[in-house]
From TrEMBL:
SUPFAM superfamilies: Ribonuclease H-like. Residues 39-170 form the RNase H type-1 domain. GO terms for molecular function: nucleic acid binding; RNA-DNA hybrid ribonuclease activity. This is RNase H type-1 domain-containing protein. InterPro entries: RNase_H-like, RNase_H-like_dom_plant, RNaseH-like_sf, RNaseH_domain, RNaseH_sf.
Length: 202
């Protein structure tokens, strides 16, 4: 049967109907997202990059915690004009450097940029030379650890790192916190340690 343009347009209006979209979304159950503690002896890094405004002002942040969900170290830094992809990679690279400096050999790296996490885990090549340079640096550093895993979490499971990346926008110089976290992440850390879920809409 021939499908006319008029029929196609009518179907498109039906598909794009905001009321139907709302009804479909209401029927989708939200996903509970929780932060997971690392194993004993492991240190977990949650990292995040942020990019704001037309000028593309970038910042990075990250937080290290142990198997008890205790704060070990955090960092935040403004990195100037960039894009969100480079900011994410810079956040991870900074975290890797800090992990090596502190002698942590068993490290769990977790971020909310799924595509980048997949590229790093699968050691894939990308077309952008600048992005590939950052990825290659990261991939070359990871074998320096005794054990290292890289995983993706939803944004709701990465809230502490996101908060630190936001603090980076406000920082005139790089910030590092050791043992005592900034007060802006205390409630998030408490919720994470308790395993409190944050519900993500599908």
């Amino acid at each position: 049967m021939m499908f006319s343009f008029t029929s196609f347009s009518r179907c498109q209006r039906l598909v794009n109907n905001p009321i139907l979209t709302l009804i479909r979304n209401l029927h989708k159950e939200p996903i509970p997202v929780t932060w997971e503690k690392p194993e004993i002896g492991w240190t977990k890094l949650n990292f995040d990059g942020s990019c704001k405004g037309r000028a593309g002002k970038g910042s990075i942040g990250g937080i290290f915690r142990n198997h008890k969900a205790e704060f070990v170290l955090g960092y935040a830094e403004s990195i100037g004009k960039t894009n969100s992809t480079i900011a994410e990679l810079a956040a991870l690279r900074r975290g890797l450097d800090l992990a090596l400096e502190n002698g942590w050999n068993d490290v769990w790296l977790e971020g909310d940029a799924k595509t980048l996490v997949d590229i790093i885990v699968e050691k894939r090549q990308v077309r952008c030379a600048e992005v590939q340079r950052h990825i290659s640096d990261i991939i070359s550093i990871i074998p320096e650890f005794d054990h290292c895993i890289v995983t993706h979490t939803y944004r709701e499971g990465n809230r502490a790192a996101d908060k630190l990346a936001q603090l980076g926008h406000q920082s005139e110089k790089p910030q590092i916190w050791i043992h005592i976290p900034p007060h802006q992440v205390l409630q998030i850390m408490h919720d994470d340690a308790e395993g409190k879920p944050v519900f993500r809409r599908r």
